[in-house]
Amino acid sequence: MRHVGDRSRKADTLFIHGFGGAPDHWNDLREMLPPDLRGRALTLPGHATRASEPGEFSIEAAAQEIIEQSICERTILVGHSMGTRIAAEIAFRAQPLVHAIILIDGSCVPTNADLAAGSIKKALRTRGKAELVNALINEALPGNLPDGLRSDLTKTMNAMTDEAMVDYSASMANWDSKKCLTRISAITCPVLVLQSTRYTTVAPIRRQSIREDPSSIWYDAWRLSPNTQQLTLPNSGHYLAQERPGAVANAICDFVARSQA
C-alpha cells in the first residue's frame, strides 16, 4: 500500500456514507489506508444507530451538522452516493476548511422533489418497506456486493423511518435539480471523482454500463472543474469501496499525496 508521508499539519479525514448506509460499511477501506488517513466514519441523521432520532433529513442539514460538529482545518471528505452530495455541500459552505474531497460513485438525477417524495410514499404504501428496500438494493443500486453487505444494507435501510426515506429522497432530487451544478462550479479544492464502470445512474431507478452511456450530468460537470481528477474502476458496481477496497485505497493515497505536494 502506498503511504502518504507525514506532515506537520495532517488533514483529518471524514467518511460520509450514502442513503441507507452505515459507518461500518467503510471498515474494509479504512483498514487498508495508512493510519493518518483512516479518520472517522460518521453516522448521518436517520441512519444506523441514529435511525430513531427525530430531526431534519436533508443534504443541507446533514452538511451543516458535520460542519458544526466534526469538521476541522484541512479536512478531507470521502463520500459515497448520497454522501457525495453532502461532501460537495460541505466543500461549498466551508471551503477554507476543506483540503480535498473524494466522491465515490456519485450521481446527479434532476427530479421534482415532490414527485420523488410521492414516489417513495406510494411505494411504501403499496409495496411496503421490505419490498421497496429489496428493489433499491437489487434493481436501483446493483453491483458486485461482497458477502454480508447485501444483508447489512437490507437491515440498515429497513431500520430507517418512512419520514427519513421520503425526506432524503426529496432532498436529493431538490439538490440535484437546483444546487448540484452551482456547487460544483464554485468548489476550488482538489477533487477526486471515483466512478463505477458497470453501473452509473442515468435515470431514477435505472442504471446501465458507463461504457454504454459515458456522459452523465455528474461526470460531465466535474470534468469541467480544473482541480478534479476522474477515475473509473473496471468491473465495479455502485458499492465500489466495498467491492474493490484495495484499488480505492490506492487511488485515495495517490490523490492525497498529490494534493499535499
Can you put this structure into words, describing what you see?
The chain has 261 residues and is of the alpha/beta class. The protein has twelve helices and eight strands. The strands form two sheets. A six-stranded parallel β-sheet has the order 2-1-3-4-5-8, with helices on both faces. The longest helix is centred in the middle third of the chain and has 17 residues, at 162-178. The chain is globular and about 55 Å long. The two termini are 19 Å apart. Residues 1-9 and 200-214 have low confidence and may be disordered.
Structural key phrases:
single chain, 8 strands
Quick structural overview:
The chain is α/β, with parallel strands linked by helices and 261 residues long. Helix content is 46%, strand content 15%. The radius of gyration is 17 Å and the shape is globular.
Helix and strand element order? EHHEHEHEHHHHHEEEHEHH
Characterize the overall form: globular
State the distance separating the first and last CA atoms.
19 Å
Question: What class, by secondary structure content?
Answer: alpha/beta
